[in-house]
Write a structure and sequence with these properties.
With about 290 residues, the chain is an alpha/beta fold. The protein is about 40% helix and about 15% strand. The chain has two domains: about 90 residues, Leucine Dehydrogenase, chain A, domain 1 (Rossmann fold); about 130 residues, 3-Layer(aba) Sandwich (Rossmann fold). It has eleven helices and ten strands. It starts with a helix and ends with a helix.
């Protein structure tokens, strides 16, 4: 296997998915619409929102953006969501997280209509996922499964370890791997003998939120490594590198059979799957 063959190219897979969505929308002559709400001026969130706008433009999805000041009250935000829920021209609603501290994110998530919950974070979406019903799957875990399929990674019967138990990535990723007949273990901050567990993983998904934590001592020879983390580095100390993941890429690379880079791995897939969910929302509301 050449060096290039080890890299899981999320950019390329995401580009293919967006091209398919673009063609689908154009051939059908439809115009799905996505509303994205950003509260406050978090720079990373602003970048994500801008990337989502670009993806919408490429795919032929109408993007409506609401950029609200950080002092926006919870009531004002919930009122906007209610208005968008009732707007028949809007198919998907996304509130960029995190929201300012004075706003309860759980209230925000549950306020979004289940038919427009393109992030897949609501209780109804999570419930549908857990019992295998049709619905919105959170974009990052959905993107991970799509990457594994694109690189013909067999999940059925494999030892799959998910590091992290967040509602946004860890838990839904574990449920999706179970759906694919993987044998799944979830590790977290209270897990004992963590390296013994991760060292048995055929597929390791790292979503721990700690830069470069996962080195070669965590993985077995030939494992497939999916790095969900993304962290901005101090440019003064890391010349030429602005971003890194939860995995120490250079340390792990030789032992892995396949590995996602940061950037260019999972990140582009998250946005591609958001486009897919927006098209699904249009079809669900259209009665297809």
């Amino acid at each position: 296997m050449t060096d290039k063959d080890k890299i899981i190219d999320g950019k390329a897979v995401a580009a293919r998915i967006k091209e398919e969505i673009k063609n689908n929308i154009r051939e059908r002559g439809i115009k799905p619409a996505l509303s994205v709400i950003l509260v406050g001026d978090d720079p990373a969130s602003a970048v994500y929102v801008n990337n989502k706008k670009k993806a919408c433009e490429f795919c032929g999805i109408e993007s409506r953006s609401y950029e609200l000041p950080s002092e926006t009250t919870e009531e004002e935000l919930l009122s906007l969501i209610d208005t968008l829920n009732k707007d028949k021209e809007i198919n998907g609603i996304l509130v960029q997280l995190p929201v300012p501290e004075h706003i309860d994110p759980d209230k925000v998530i549950e306020a979004i209509s289940p038919l427009k919950d393109v992030d897949g974070f609501s209780t109804q979406s999570v419930g549908a996922l857990s019992v295998g019903k049709k619905g919105f799957v959170p974009c990052t875990p959905a993107g991970i499964i799509e990457l594994l399929h694109s690189y013909d990674v067999e999940i059925s019967g494999k030892n799959c370890v998910v590091m992290g138990r967040s509602n946004i990535v860890g838990k839904p990723a574990a449920m999706l791997l179970l759906r694919e007949n993987g044998t799944v273990t979830v590790t977290h901050t209270k897990t004992r003998d963590i390296k013994e567990i991760t060292g048995r993983a055929d597929i390791l998904i790292a979503a721990v939120g700690k830069p470069g934590m996962i080195d070669e001592s965590y993985i077995k020879e030939g494992a497939v490594i999916i790095d969900v983390g993304i962290h901005r580095l101090d440019p003064g100390k890391n010349e030429g590198r602005k971003l890194c993941g939860d995995v120490d890429f250079d340390s792990v690379y030789d032992k892995a059979s396949l590995i996602t880079p940061v950037p260019g791995g999972v990140g582009p897939m998250t946005i591609a799957m958001l486009m897919k969910n927006t098209l699904l929302a249009f079809d669900m509301q259209d009665g297809r």
